[in-house]
Amino acid sequence: MILHRLAFVGAVRKLDNASAYRTEDANTLYGRGAIIHSVAPYGTVCCAVTAAWVWLGGEFPKTIDIVSTSHFRTLTYGRKIRVFNRNAPQGHLTSIGDLHITTPQRTACDIALLSEEEAGEIYANETVCALMETYGFRPTDCLDILAANRFWQNSPRAKQFFRIIEHCF
Description:
The protein is α+β, with helices and mostly antiparallel strands. The chain has helices at residues 2-9, 29-39, 48-56, 104-112, 116-121, 124-135, 139-148, 155-165, and strands at 12-14, 20-22, 45-46, 63-67, 80-84, 93-96, 99-102. It has one domain. It is built from eight helices and seven strands. The radius of gyration is 16 Å and the shape is globular.
């Protein structure tokens, strides 16, 4: 009951009916990194939509997206763990505090690689452009990552997206 009241007044944001995080923690990059570090499986790398939330903020993601070769079947804090079994070289990774996370460029690529249905649900185009504007990289940076990993699922569609927006930057 206290959790619901605290969420109602805006002091916390609920993850599920038994867990929450402090609203003020979600206002900073390092705060969001600490939140995700506490909910992601140990030893994994945060990516895709979850990484975009860490980099940009906004509404907490519906899934916990990670790069891993393992399988996770149970929910964590009311959220499904979505595993991406993609190549993640050191150049695509960084850390925010104790959280291992994909760089903003790689995060943009991961979001562009989502299926059309998933991309529509999370406003992928807007998210990718926000990452580029906030972290100062260009579509060519993402095209280079995609060229080196041309066998990733949905790669042709992602490349087309970055070629189209290349003229806007």
